[in-house]
Amino acid sequence: MADRAGLLDPAVEPEVTPSSVAAPGSGGGRRVAVLLLSLLVLAVSLVAAVRVGLGGGMGWDEIGRAVGARLGLPVPPLPRLADSLIWDLRVPRVLLAALVGAALAVCGAALQSVTRNALADPYLLGVSSGASTGAVVVVLLGFAGSHLGMTGGAFLGALVSFALLVFLLRRRGLDSVRIVLTGVVVGQLFTAITSLILMSSGDADSTRALTHWLLGSLAPARWQSVVLCALACAVGLLVVWLHSPALDGFAFGADTATSLGVDVRTVRMVLLVTTSLLTAVAVAAVGAIGFVGLIVPHGVRFLVGPLHRVLLPLSAVVGATFLVWTDALARVAFAPLEVPVGVFTALLGVPLFLLILRKRGEL
Amino acid sequence: MRIEARHLSWGVPGRTIVRDVDLVVEPGETVGLIGPNGSGKSSLLRCLAGLRAPTGGGVRYDGTDIAGWSARTRARHVAFVEQTADTDSDLTVGEVVVLGRTAHGSPWRAPDATDRAITAAALDRLDLTGLADRPWTRLSGGERQRTHLARALAQRTWGLLLDEPTNHLDVRHQLELLELVASTRQTVVIALHDLALAARYCDRLVLLHGGTVVADGSAERVLTRELLREVFEVDADVDRDDAGRLAVAYRGPAR
Asked: Nearest Cα to A279, choosing from A269, A290, A264, A266?
């Protein structure tokens, strides 16, 4: 077949006339619409989740006054306790849920591409195991009283486990199978260390506290962690998103990606570091909330296809919405008892995951 | 573009797979790489594409050694099609072909109108326009192979390195693909299993055995009974048919 415009001839500068553009893979309009719609849903969810399960006879009016006062609006002030409950506990909790959900979903999507493994999730590299070791050490050393102590310990532990991972991967190339295997080994090592410490010197209370933390809970959310997570998300998500073309190129493996012009080793290292740090911040703030990073990217791929330019932002929005709602559910389902949110992400995630697999004809 | 290998060697610890290969491919030439399984065709192609760093010697494009070139720079000079490059991702044919544009422009940008036009032309060239929106997982082996070649053409490089691109193709598509490859102005190195097709469509054949070049030249010089027997371990008659085309008739495995 003739290539009339000479578009495939490297000797000819490609000249594009409107008639020669028959856009393959159109549907860009639909993708933008889906993204805008999901942003709207997230915005509504954020507001609604603040209201859900708000006790003490408080409702929209009180929320409006608490938020309005911060924005400098002329609203009648709230009693101190009610104001603190909404502004210092509930609002940061909902925001943190959104940030952590976005971070986990994007990290999961990126790692699934980097490792070419559909089962990859943000904890694949052992970061959460390192974090739990750090947390348990802090608890046993008696610094756990302050929330920052546990968060700081978990973050340090995550960094140590990631440093070990990079050390083990340093020599031979960053082959995707090697990344997965090394991550599993590092994770197992730190899980064993955590168990060892707990068995040898833990008491019933600290074991319980740690189990609760490991399942993940947004109850300790404060503005401090919101700000920290927001900064980490802003930088981390941007770095990952900028690598969208490279992530697409990984689809056919390292050799094809390299021949397309992707510097595979560098991109893999940048993304491993970015996703690990982002995961470390999230885990340190709220514990290891499972399943969000695994199922959200799969669900979003099902909706808009595998191109990361669209997949990553939409995963962030859907992950945020998903965690905001599961956390609201965790608060009210067995009120006044609060269930760790990780229990609900799994309870909701498993059927959703099966549904997606079924729709794709893989089950 | 002129592609040159000088004293090129490559191997894994304990095993040399490509051994002291000297090869020059002139601009616009189509060179067929032939040899039995394990003779080093794929490894040589990967070295020529810069995907493997030589353990000895080097590769030059237009006289410049490519050692130290970035993947991006290499990707603007040569496109490479692997023998089997599969994915379980649900990319469509059009989305795979547009991947060929990755090395052009800024690394962060999205495909623009020019990229889409080039993609459409590449799809058209490989007879894939009707399949543009079909997901990869629902393609036949031959359609996948053609998609990869369209992707390589969309890369608009002066060099094309193809590792058995006719695998999985039916006869018609094999002939169409080889005609396309032979008619381009690009410099092509193509690994092929079918000796008769290689003889017919390539300007020159290079015969590999145990990682070294044992013959390099016209089909008549390379496809001799003696070499076929020694390298491929087959007994075969090599003749010309009425139209002057070289024909290889196998009698059986060499005894």
From this structure: A290
Give me the percent of chain A exceeding a pLDDT of 70: 91
Say which residue, A37 or A16, is predicted with more confidence: A37
| Residues B58, B155 within the same domain | yes
- Find where tokens 């400098």 sit: A72
Q: Roughly what angle, to the nearest 10 degrees, separates helices A341-359 and A204-215?
A: 40
B119:A24 CB<8 A = yes
- Ranges of H-type helices in A60-143: 60-70, 80-84, 91-114, 127-141
The answer on B244 and B169 residing in a single domain is no
Dist CA B132 CA A24 (whole Å): 6
Q: Compute φ and ψ for A161, nearest 5 degrees.
A: -65, -35
pLDDT digits (tens, 9 = 90+) for A118-144: 888 888 888 888 988 888 888 777 765
Q: Given CB atoms, is B176 within the 8 Å cutoff of chain A?
A: no
- ipTM, interface predicted TM-score of the complex: 0.92
Binned at pLDDT 50, 70 and 90, residue B106 comes out as confident
Q: Is there a single domain that holds both residue B187 and residue B241? A: no
Q: How many domains does chain B have?
A: 2
Q: For B231, which DSSP code? A: I
% of chain B surpassing 70 pLDDT: 100
Statement to judge: residues B141 and B245 lie in one domain: no
Q: How far apart are CA A288 and CA A167, in angstroms?
A: 24
Distance from CA of B113 to the nearest CA of A (A): 7
Average pLDDT over residues B12-40: 94
What is the average pLDDT across A141-166? 79
Q: How far is CA A26 from CA A29, A32, A238, A304, in A?
A: 8, 12, 25, 12
Burial A127-137 (b: 16+ CB within 10 A, else e): bbbbbbbbbbb
The parent domain of residue B42 ranges over: 3-223
Contacts of A305 in chain B (CB under 8 A): 90-92, 95
| pLDDT for A20 | 46
Contacts of B38 (CB under 8 A, 6+ apart): none
Give this prediction's pTM. Answer: 0.90
Q: Which residues in chain A have their CB less than 8 angstroms from residue B94's CB?
A: 24-25
d(CA B196, CA B238): 10
Q: Which residues of A touch B78 (CB under 8 A)?
A: 259
